[in-house]
Amino acid sequence: MTTSSRKLDHIRICLDNPVESEGVVARSFDDLVLVHKALPEIDEADIDTSCRFLGRKLSAPLMISAMTGGHPSVKEINVNLALAASELGIAMGVGSQRAALEEESLKDTFSAVRDAAPDIPIIGNIGAVQLKRSGPGILDQLAEMIDADAIAVHLNFLQESIQPEGDRDASGVVKVLGEAANGSVPIIVKETGAGISRETAASLADVGVKMIDVSGQGGLSWAGVETYRAAEIGDCDLEEMGRLFWSWGIPTPVSIVECRSIGLDVISSGGIRSGLDVAKSLSLGASLAGTALPMLKPATKDAKAVVRAMSPYLRALRICMFLTGCRRAGELKGVPLVVLGRTREWLGARGYDLNEFSAYRELTK
Ligand SMILES: Cc1cc2nc3c(=O)[nH]c(=O)nc-3n(C[C@H](O)[C@H](O)[C@H](O)COP(=O)(O)O)c2cc1C
Q1: What angle do CA 267, 20, 312 make, to 5 degrees?
Q2: How does pLDDT run across 158-167, given as a tens digit for each residue?
Q3: Residue 183 is part of a domain; what is its CATH number?
Q4: How far apart are CA 178 and CA 174, in angstroms?
Q5: How far is the CA of 326 from the centre of ligand 1 (A)?
Q6: C-beta 71 within 6 A of ligand 1
Q7: Ligand 1 in contact with 123 (CB < 6 A)?
Q8: Residues comprising the binding site?
Q9: pLDDT for 102-130, tens place per residue?
Q10: Rounded to an integer, what distance in angstroms lies between the CA atom of residue 231 and that of residue 239?
Q11: What are phi and psi for residue 96, nearest 5 degrees?
Q12: DSSP 3-state assignment of 146?
């Protein structure tokens, strides 16, 4: 099976089936509560959600996370996402560009994104295993294809473990990521729905990686997607593994805390389903939040539908900022946040002092 047709399978399965891990494990973001400020003492009209990302201005710390490109029939999805991101002034990632490296004629399914959105940060994408095979020199080619501001190198070993044609040789990846991090194209190391731990973040920081997209557990499950594929081809063993590992991974809020504790710049993604999740992510120390799956179906319609799906995120972020007394998005880092339930237990078991997020912030102001 070619890379291009596998990508089509993924889109079809994501459009037609429940593929999220939520429902199996409670949403970790629901364990986080921003403390309401009954006297915000700011004028809502003065709130400014804008920020800078990869040298460009965004209207809000938001992005549409990597999804697609690499098949003629998905070009329109990419263009609709790009037109919407451009209208809203937010960033966008494209899906793995591997197919375009294998087949020149597919390049325009990616480059059309830059044509539709000349001014926003656009992030290219390649798998870590592919990067290891091709060598870091490939990053210049990927960046040039879409005039990218950075390239996300994705880690998807959960998916590879359940995929019939999965590539499970993860040896030597840290070394190649180190070489890439010291090259001319900025890189972001990105998971794809299973999160990044403190230990992994530390080994990435050691080799020079500066920015991580945690893409934690709580949203799209690649084990879930591959479960459907395994069932379709009648591979009962892999189907069983897919179900077993459906909710494997580090919940997104936990992963943000773990990676921030190493001092890395963090993008929050994996189960971001509202502007409230964005605000909570920023409060935990992320500088930006991304969402993928909820934008897929609207993007099969038109750019307007994507704008309609994304606009409430911006609105809710603004309301959160008002109700916590923040004029600037960056101020959310300092607002008190109470961590409850399983997320509290998890972070406590990993040795984190949760007072850092709640009472402590107020007492030390
Ligand atoms: C249809 C689809 C295709 C995806 N393809 C890629 C990809 O090529 N590269 C990548 O890094 N992530 C890919 N992702 C993962 C997303 O970027 C994101 O990390 C993940 O879906 C979690 O976010 P969500 O819960 O908001 O969907 C894809 C997601 C979807 C839904």
Answers
A1: 60
A2: 999 999 889 9
A3: 3.20.20.70
A4: 6
A5: 31
A6: no
A7: no
A8: 6-7, 65-68, 96-98, 125, 159-160, 190, 215, 271-273, 292-293
A9: 899 999 999 999 999 999 999 999 999 99
A10: 6
A11: -50, 130
A12: helix
